[in-house]
Amino acid sequence: MNLTIEHIVALSIFSSYFLLIFGLFYLIVSSIRKYSTSPAYPGRVWLFNALTVVSFGHTWFWMFKYMLWSFSNFESKQTLAEITQKGPLLRVANWLTKTGLFEEAWLAVCKSPLNWWWSEQLCLFTTGAFTVFLFMQQRVPHIWAYMLLGQVVAISVAWSLLNVALVVLPPSSHASERPTLRLPLLVTVPVVLSLLTVSLSPYTSTSTFLPNLLIMHALLIIPLLPLPQFAVRSLSPRASSFYTLIALLSITLRIRTTAKLLSFLRITSSPFFSLSYPTWKTLHSHPAQASIGWDIVWTCVVLFGWGLFGHRDQEETRWKIADGGLSRCVLATVVASLGVVAPMEFGREMREDAETRSKME
């Protein structure tokens, strides 16, 4: 049996996916190297480079395991004669033609309250705090590429590379305006709509799940494209205030999801300790779940790294360990989730910057 046009298209899309990943890495790394200056604390560059490599290796170990699982699962439904009569390339082409990898993977990580308890954390962080944080980094070239890399590789990898850029790139000439920046509608509207798609995800049907997912991913790119920005003052909130809104919306969704999970597991007492084992077990229940689950964990680690070492030229950290800043954030992340804590911390940093600058004036 020869390859059909359908097979060739499927193989081309699969190959293009890896070419896109390579292209995004090349674009981001080359731009960082081109515009970088010597940082005051090179150890911070090593830290975030190490987090990039480790998070990429760990999440994609599970991603490749998912692909192998998907291929084996597909062929387990074929007869021995159907398999042996085809060459390796045709077998792979047949698998890609008849399997929607993107939808299959996301269905696996959203199919039950336990799966969604994990996956919602990354969705909330990405659609909310991370999108706004990326928009704020105007000094970073090709900022849209970080979001796209996060979507096709892992958010933890893109977040780590962004921190490399923030440490080595020269400060923006508009840094003094950052604490009072107002967000244009082209940022706030897509973010709110994407958070809406996250809230709808557990209630989608077979026919609406994929469209809702695609809309979520597409909305996140819009604020980062080099499009004309219109800021209507009455409709354009300060970034710090919008972070607070994101945190409130996120914690509302997390309460709903956790309550549904407790009901699903019939847990009526000691919810924190009662959830520990089933959530850990779910993390490794499926390769796709492990990939996104560990992406969440590594993204949390990078957030802690940002809080401690994210400044370019300042010796002090955002979180003073002696004052319990790191332990407070770790505990809050474990209890409330990454999607809630990140916007709170980003907003707090902006408010502190504004207070500092007002005292200096």
State the separation between the terminal residues, measured CA to CA. Answer: 76 Å
Shape: globular
The major beta sheet can be summarized as: none
Q: In what range is the share of β-strand residues?
A: under 5%
Rg over CA atoms = 22 Å
Can you write the helix and strand succession as a string? Answer: HHHHHHHHHHHHHHH
Number of DSSP strands? Answer: 0
Low-pLDDT segments, ≥5 res: none
Mean pLDDT: 88
Descriptive report:
This protein is mainly alpha-helical. The protein has 15 helices and no strands. The protein has helices at residues 5-35, 42-75, 80-84, 88-98, 101-108, 113-136, 143-152, 155-168, 185-200, 209-221, 239-265, 271-283, 287-309, 325-336, 338-360. Helix 6 runs parallel beside helix 13 (287-309). The mean pLDDT is 88.
Features:
0% strand; mainly alpha; 361 residues
